Amino acid sequence: GFIVSSIFLFNFIVAQDACDMPDNTIHLNDGAVWYNVDTDIGGFQWTIDGATATSATGGDAAAAGFTTQAVGTTVLGFSFTGSSVPAGCGTLTNLALSGEPTGLSGIVFSDPLGQPFEVVYYEGGDDGGEDGGGDITEACDLPTNNILLDGGAVWYNVDTDIGGFQWTIDG
Questions:
Q1: Which of 5, 6, 50, 128 is deepest in the core (most CB within 10 A)?
Q2: Residue 140: pLDDT band with limits 50, 70, 90
Q3: According to the model, what pLDDT value does residue 85 have?
Q4: What residues pair up with 25 in beta bridges, in sequence order?
Q5: DSSP for the chain, written as a single string
Q6: How many CA atoms lie within 13 Å of 55's alpha carbon, on the beta-carbon side?
Q7: What is the bridge-based pairing of β-strands 146-150 and 11-12?
Q8: Is the pLDDT of residue 99 over 60?
């Protein structure tokens, strides 16, 4: 029989929820700002591209007692009491938007001590809109450490040797 000595997990190009995204990324999904970070969040700020916001409510930021403001294209969240959003994944906040957003930029995150840590916008999520990135015509077009099911072919782009693999196909 075939024995898999190690299992290498991949991120699918279409995220089904925030926990499917790579570490230290955020994504805008129908007004919900998804996050997946490996550091506690003490504060955040970003610019909304292609739209404006009238409010930012709910999510894990509100549950942590954050003050979250959305004015024009800028979103800012922090705590007056020093609380933080624990490392992990979920919905950080929900934005009421005017216009068709194309992404988030100027992303700044800090830990509870005010030290910055890198978070980038994840473009691989399914936002129901036009593809914001370049066309994927071959496996090398995929972001690193991602796979894509294209018909019956499985395309992959990884930065480490594969000792084995396993996944579930839904649908």
A1: 50
A2: confident
A3: 98
A4: 36, 120
A5: ----S--B--EESS-SSGGGSPSSEEEEETTEEEEEESS-BSEEEEEEEEEEEEEEE-HHHHHTT-EEEEEBTEEEEE-SS---BPSEEEEEEEEEEEEEEEEEEEEEEE-TTS-EE--EE---S--SS---S----SGGGSPTTEEEEETTEEEEE-SS--S-B------
A6: 5
A7: parallel
A8: yes
pLDDT at 67 over 90: yes
Higher pLDDT, 159 or 10: 159
First-residue to last-residue Cα distance in the chain: 28
**Location of structure tokens 């925030």:** 18
pLDDT given for residue 5 in this prediction: 37
Which class for 41: exposed (0-12), middle (13-18), buried (19 or more C-beta within 10 A)?
Answer: buried
- 100 contacts 57 by C-beta, under 8 angstroms: no
- Strands 88-110 and 116-117 turn out to be antiparallel
CA distance 115 to 130: 35
Contact 155, 145 (CB under 8 A): no
